[in-house]
Every structure is written in structure tokens, then in C-alpha cells.
Specification:
Elements: E1 3-6, H1 10-14, H2 17-29, E2 33-35, H3 45-49, H4 53-66, E3 72-75, H5 78-87, H6 95-106, E4 108-110, H7 111-118, E5 130-134, H8 138-143, H9 148-155, E6 160-162, H10 178-181, H11 183-199, E7 204-207, H12 210-223, E8 228-231, H13 232-237
Parallel strand pairs: 1-2, 1-3, 3-4, 5-6, 5-7, 7-8
Length: 240
């Protein structure tokens, strides 16, 4: 039986616990044993993006230790996966720590990547029904190069009809602290994203990044737009 540890990420823990539950349900339905190391903390991306490399290294050091016994680590967040896999190995000058970071990075997977590339899942016993459009987050498609994996997951849900939006890989304007530091620019980028999503005719915008979800859901609420934002794991785990 495959065994993975869930790295739940801050936004899921604090704002979207239902995504964490859906992730566990999806994996368990595929025969995967899931554990949750309670000592886990943030991946360190906020301090890293703010230029505090030493603090990011301290967080990375703690995370690597917490997950040292995991066979594989699955994250329901493209941006956090990008952080641990692409940036952790570059945080350390010490050769031993750098090697540990590389080993940790090699066993970390974004959820759709693990389901598609490792487990080779073709169909999901989901009761979800609806027309969806998929938002390619920046870290997912540019940092990790994951564009087809989430779409393959959606193709495995019989009731999900995927309609592509124009420029699906354009930024939603979140960018973590970017949206706080430059709110006017962030809002302008967001409005363009929401307009293209709405024009697709979909009922749901699906994302694999909770940060993008929070950004888009807030914008849709302010617009009074009936379009809903949902995480990929929730589509795959839906019980109707």
C-alpha cells in the first residue's frame, strides 16, 4: 500500500480545511495510506518572497526534519510544492543540508501530479456534476510545469465538463504579499482573470492553489458574480 504524508499548507489549515479533508479522501479512495505530521508548519514561502532567506532556511530546516520519515509528501497547493521542490535546495550553503533538501524535494508532489504521474489514476468515483473551467496558477504551470495533470484529473470525473477559458495561464493577481503591497495592480489583474472565467460559461472555476482560490473568490463576491471557485481535490472527492 502506498504511504504518503500530507503537507496541508497554511491556507488550507487556516481557511480551507475542507480541501485538506477532500485531499485525504481522494488519496484513501485510491488505496493510499495517509498520515499527518502534527509538527508541520508553513513552507516558508512568505518570508522567502519577502527577501528573508535566513528565516526561510530555518523554516525549511524544520520542515525537512518533520517529514524525514515520509515515503512521499503530497501537497494540495502548487505554490507550496514549488517552494519546497524548486527553492529549498538553494537555501543552504552547507553541502549536507543542501543534499537533505534535495532528497526532500525529490519526494514532494503536488496532488494532481501524484495522482496522475505516480498512481496513474484514470477515473475517480466522484459524484460531481457541472461545467468547470481550470485556472493555471503561476507556480503550477511555470514553476512546476504542471498543466496537463490537473486536466487529466478532471477528465477522470464523468460529471465534470471542462471548458477552457482564454489565457487560462494568466495570473490571478494574488502573488501572496504582492496583492497587499500593490492592491490596485492586483485588482486590475484579477478583474481580467474573472472576466475571462465568466466568459467561458462555466459554473465553477477550478484551481489547485488555495491562494488563487482566495483571491478569485473574493473578487467574485465583490462583483456579485454567481461563478463559484472550487479546489481540484473537492471535485475529485465530491459525494454529490
Amino acid at each position: 500500500m502506498p504511504r504518503v504524508s500530507l503537507f496541508v499548507t497554511c491556507l488550507v489549515d487556516l481557511f480551507f480545511p475542507e480541501i485538506g479533508e477532500a485531499t485525504v479522501n481522494v488519496l484513501r479512495r485510491q488505496g493510499v495510506q495517509v498520515d499527518f505530521p502534527r509538527a508541520q508548519i508553513c513552507c516558508g514561502q512568505p518570508v522567502f518572497n519577502s527577501g528573508f532567506r535566513g528565516d526561510a532556511a530555518a523554516v525549511a530546516r524544520r520542515t525537512i526534519d518533520v517529514f524525514k520519515d515520509a515515503d512521499n509528501v503530497v501537497l494540495p497547493s502548487g505554490s507550496c510544492t514549488d517552494m519546497v521542490r524548486e527553492h529549498y535546495p538553494h537555501l543552504f550553503d552547507d553541502a549536507r543540508e543542501r543534499e537533505q533538501a534535495q532528497q526532500f524535494a525529490a519526494k514532494c508532489y503536488e496532488l494532481s501530479e501524484y495522482l496522475t504521474d505516480v498512481l496513474a489514476v484514470g477515473e475517480y468515483p466522484s459524484q460531481f456534476k457541472g461545467k468547470v473551467t481550470y485556472h493555471d496558477s503561476c507556480h503550477m504551470c511555470r514553476g512546476l510545469g504542471l498543466k496537463q495533470q490537473p486536466r487529466q484529473c478532471l477528465a477522470g470525473v464523468k460529471g465534470a465538463e471542462l471548458v477552457e477559458m482564454p489565457q487560462s495561464d494568466e495570473c490571478c493577481g494574488f502573488g501572496g504579499s504582492f496583492s497587499v503591497r500593490l492592491p490596485e495592480v492586483s485588482e486590475a489583474i484579477l478583474q481580467k482573470k474573472l472576466e475571462t472565467a465568466h466568459a467561458s460559461g462555466a459554473e465553477y472555476v477550478v484551481s489547485a492553489d488555495p491562494g488563487c482560490m482566495m483571491q478569485m473568490a473574493g473578487g467574485l463576491s465583490r462583483r456579485g458574480d454567481p461563478l463559484k471557485v472550487i479546489h481540484l481535490a473537492q471535485v475529485l472527492a465530491s459525494e454529490g
